[in-house]
TrEMBL record:
Entry GO MF terms: ATP binding; carbohydrate binding; transmembrane receptor protein serine/threonine kinase activity
Name of this protein: non-specific serine/threonine protein kinase
Recorded superkingdom: Eukaryota
GO BP term (any one): defense response to oomycetes
Organism name: Hordeum vulgare subsp. vulgare (Domesticated barley)
Enzymatic reactions: L-seryl-[protein] + ATP = O-phospho-L-seryl-[protein] + ADP + H(+); L-threonyl-[protein] + ATP = O-phospho-L-threonyl-[protein] + ADP + H(+)
Record field: transmembrane: 294-315
SMART domains: S_TKc
Name of the coding gene: LOC123406133
Keyword annotations from UniProtKB, A to Z: ATP-binding, Cell membrane, Glycoprotein, Kinase, Lectin, Membrane, Nucleotide-binding, Receptor, Serine/threonine-protein kinase, Signal, Transferase, Transmembrane, Transmembrane helix
Signal peptide: 1-17
EC code(s) of this entry: 2.7.11.1
Record InterPro entries: ConA-like_dom_sf, Kinase-like_dom_sf, L-type_Lectin-RKs, Legume_lectin_dom, Prot_kinase_dom, Protein_kinase_ATP_BS, Ser/Thr_kinase_AS
């Protein structure tokens, strides 16, 4: 059914030399059966001819390249070695596990090599890594179909198309969609809709112009491109160029497919025959039996059909609200929310209610219909049932905790592959937004508020560690997990959630859960959490609030440096106060700032035993106990042990959020 046609057409011309070098190269794949694409990692050609780039396993990447490289440069005297015009068309489909969440995206790639073993999955899309992203020596041109918003790459949203040169920060990007030929209106499309779609990439060698166009599967190429950029690809592409695709998954898995592909150099890409393409795999239930559709109308009158219609409607409605409920959950009954209520509270999880997305999933604002209570609903995608019971038990027991500096967990709800956690709504959002995303004209968080919030978080943590009926370890203390109520009081949120991902599939794997930059060294080594690993993260958090900088900051050379090392260098040089957030313009209490910074250093001590416990920290903060001087030996140990583990740095998602490291430090 699928076929591969490789065309090499030589146009009639006068000059023989020109004939060969400007030969119009074309190829077309209508399905990939029998093709000899060079594939690696998870990429494979399925028996029915689909090119499957990722296979539904988390943290994977896959590539597929046309086996031979192309000579795209015009080597005639008049051509000056410029990259010739070319055009590419391909049909793709992203089959995600969840209807509204997918990872991470895919890209069409032109590169000097087809060995991408050094590239990372997740937000790097299998194209680059922490060290080489954006480096001009990559010589990569790519068009990304990105389904997760990566703030580091200044992504506009979680559903966009972008033109990438040498790195993942796009030269140009726009919402996925197309401009209607008749009305000229923009119609948006959802990349992860599990539907096939077509992309056209056109480059004009003379005008140095790149156009990218997207359209639904069955639609002709729209006249107006989605993206248009001026860029001289002669400055990017090498003499010989490999053409192909890359795709990657992160914590969430998805399957990325290419159905057909064509190329034309110095000519249009041949049109892909849609009728010949293989079909995307279906997800979800099988369609109703044909017998039901054909026989029923013949034998019964129309009202029976009407009745059938009503039944289907009711069933649809039901399945829309279907929950997962097991026997053991009875005891947690009072904490259980009806999915229907949460669905209504958030108007069907509409985007306009989206508060933000974190490593665990998306958070929506909602108002419960009956109580009119404002809530934040966190949707956590979670497939494995393993450990769920323990987790729910823990979550609900934690749910009984009431403290003014801990975000109240109101309850939970479970659906297939998904857990919904319902929290009290915090009108002022998370602290990181106030520290980093200050909009033009918005004042920075003043020192008094910062000091107040530090005290709030400390007393929340004291409660978890020492005052409640059992010791609760937070596991993920960081600025984005500190939420601010209507009076700007700090409340610690998300406690215990990291536990959900804590169950290793086998005893050989140590799962370290937390956020890069806040992970204590012994936690990375042993995977074991303790109140002191929380204290480490708390120390980093203190530095973050005082300095207004992320735990891993850019140094003057554009490289990355741990905030703790930077503060420490200033401490050693006697210029500690220079690390206080410059945006405060000197408006801070020197004594308090010194206290917070020094405590930050003490808590982020690489030796767990040297860190103070939270009760001690509270006494220092309150001025009950004077702060001890850091001794030169302390400083020496601090300086020798960098604040974070270098090997963890190369692991993709951890740099920005929560993640799992498997046997990362096994050999250490
Ligand atoms: N209870 C809440 N009230 C108001 N906004 C909230 C609440 N909980 C979360 N948010 C918002 O939703 C965003 C995402 O939260 P979430 O906790 O999922 O992500 P995160 O803390 O950035 O990352 P991680 O999942 O790794 O902890 C937060 O940045 C915050 O702005
Ligand atoms: C996907 O590919 C990876 C790497 O080749 C492999 O380890 C994994 O088992 C595959 N998963 C499935 C579901 O086929
Ligand atoms: C790809 O490159 C890596 C080193 O960068 C090398 O170890 C590996 O063998 C290469 N793979 C192939 C298939 O050439
Ligand atoms: C870019 O990569 C080259 C070759 O790998 C390397 O020598 C150079 O230092 C890199 N440049 C930057 C800015 O990282
Ligand atoms: C890009 O699109 C513009 C606008 O439709 C068009 O004028 C131009 O010819 C296109 N360029 C290429 C290289 O297709």
């Amino acid at each position: 059914m699928s076929s591969l046609v490789l065309l090499l057409t030589i146009p009639l011309g006068l000059n023989l030399a020109a004939l060969i070098t400007t030969a119009n190269d074309q190829f077309i794949y209508s399905g990939f059966s029998g093709s000899n694409l060079a594939v690696d990692d998870t990429a494979t050609v399925t028996p029915d001819g689909l090119l499957e780039l990722t296979n539904g396993t988390a943290y994977q990447k896959g590539h597929a390249f046309h086996p031979a490289p192309f000579r795209l440069r015009d080597s005639t005297a008049s051509g000056n070695g410029k990259v010739r015009s070319f055009s590419v068309a391909f049909v793709f489909g992203i089959v995600s596990v969840y209807p509204d969440f997918s990872a991470h995206g895919m890209a069409f790639v032109m590169a000097p090599r087809r060995n991408f073993s050094d590239a990372l999955p997740a937000k790097y899309l299998g194209l680059t890594n922490v060290h080489n992203d954006g480096n001009a020596s990559n010589n990569i041109f790519a068009v990304e179909l990105d389904t997760i918003q990566s703030v580091e790459f200044k992504d506009i949203n979680a559903n966009h198309v972008g033109i990438d040169i040498n790195g993942l920060q796009s030269l140009r990007s726009y919402n996925a969609g197309y401009y209607d030929d008749k009305s000229g209106e923009f119609r948006s499309m959802k990349l992860i809709s599990r539907e096939a779609m077509q992309v056209w990439i056109d480059y004009h060698g003379e005008r140095k112009e790149i156009n990218v166009t997207l359209a639904p599967f069955d639609m002709a190429k729209p006249a107006r491109p989605l993206l248009s950029a001026s860029y001289d690809l002669s400055t990017v592409l090498t003499e010989l160029v490999y053409l192909g695709f890359s795709a990657a998954t992160g914590r969430v898995n998805s399957r990325h497919f290419v159905l057909g592909w064509s190329l034309g150099v110095s000519t249009e890409a041949p049109a892909i025959d849609m009728a010949k393409l293989p079909k995307l795999p279906r997800v979800g239930p099988k369609p109703r039996s044909k017998v039901f559709d054909i026989v029923l109308p013949i034998v019964t009158a129309t009202f029976v059909l009407g009745l059938g219609g009503i039944i289907i409607l009711v069933m649809r409605r039901r399945s829309r609200y279907t929950e997962l409920r097991e026997d053991w959950e009875v005891e947690f009954g009072p904490h259980r929310f009806l999915y229907k209520d949460l669905f209504r509270a958030t108007e069907g999880f509409k985007d306009k209610h989206l508060l933000g997305a974190g490593g665990f999933g998306r958070v929506y604002r909602g108002v419960l219909e009956t109580s009119k209570l404002e809530v934040a609903v966190k949707r956590v995608s979670h497939e494995s049932r393993q450990g769920m019971r323990e987790f729910i038990a823990e979550i609900t027991s934690i749910g009984r905790i009431r403290h003014r500096n801990l975000v109240e967990l109101l309850g939970y709800c479970r659906r297939k592959g998904e857990l919904l956690l319902v929290y009290a709504y915090m009108p002022n959002g998370s602290l990181d937004k106030h520290l980093y995303n200050t909009r033009e004209g918005q004042p920075t968080l003043n020192w008094a508020l910062r000091f107040q919030i530090v005290n709030d978080v400390a007393s929340g943590l004291l409660y978890l560690h020492q005052r409640w009926e059992k010791v609760v370890i937070h596991r993920d203390i960081k600025a984005s997990n500190v939420l601010l109520d209507k009076d700007m009081n700090g409340q610690l949120g998300d406690f215990g959630l990291a536990r959900l991902y804590d169950h290793g599939a086998d005893s050989q794997t140590t799962h370290v859960v937390g956020t890069m930059g806040y992970l204590a060294p012994e936690l990375i080594r042993t995977g074991r959490v303790s109140p002191l690993t929380d204290m480490f993260a708390f120390g980093i958090f203190l530095l973050e609030v005082a300095c207004g900088q992320k735990p891993i900051k850019e140094n003057a050379q554009g490289g990355q440096i741990a905030l703790v090392d930077w503060v420490l260098e200033h401490w050693r040089d006697g210029t500690l106060m220079e690390t206080v957030d410059a945006r405060l313009q000197g408006g801070f209490d020197i004594h308090q700032a010194g206290l917070v910074l020094t405590l930050g250093l003490m808590c982020s001590h690489p030796l767990a035993s040297a860190r103070p416990a939270i009760g001690q920290v509270m006494r220092y903060l309150a001025g009950v106990t004077p702060l001890p001087e850091l001794t030169p030996t302390d400083v020496l140990t601090l300086m020798q042990n960098k604040g974070f583990d270098e090997s963890a740095m190369s692991y993709p998602d951890l740099v920005s959020s929560f993640g799992t490291i498997s046997t990362l430090s096994g050999g250490r």
